[in-house]
Amino acid sequence: MLTNSVSVKSAYDFFVQKVLSQSKNDIKFVGTGSSRTAFACIGGKCLKLAKVFAGVEQNKQEEKHTMQHWWKKSYECFAMTYGHNAGHEMLLSECCARMSSD
Asked: Is the model's pTM score more than 0.90?
């Protein structure tokens, strides 16, 4: 498990340089924040990649709150989380978009 932001940043840089350069048609950049970057994948899935250790913590919390729990059977408004790697540097979830009131 990666334990600091330097290690997480190294893993992030490797992923962006090596993996994305080889799969330009399969993975598309969606957006970036201070701690994570999101990529849309084939099949309506979203890969959330931690840039720093805070992103790892965000991935852990999102996974904790969106995996199949008792409320997932009753409410369809939550994005499904499919899995993560051992250190939570990567999280795979459903892609979703903001709703408009129009």
From this structure: no
Q: What is the mean pLDDT of each run of 10 residues along the chain (102 residues)?
A: 65 76 77 92 90 93 73 64 88 80 68
Nearest-Å Rg of the Cα atoms of the chain is 14
Nearest of 83, 22, 20 to residue 30 by alpha carbon: 20
For 2-22, b/e burial (b = at least 16 CB within 10 A) is: beebeebbebbeebeeeeeee
Structure tokens given for 47: 């890969």
60 CB neighbour count, 10 Å cutoff: 15
Contacts 24+ apart (CB under 8 A), 3-7: 3/53, 4/53, 5/52, 5/53, 5/54
The residue to which tokens 């084939």 are assigned: 42
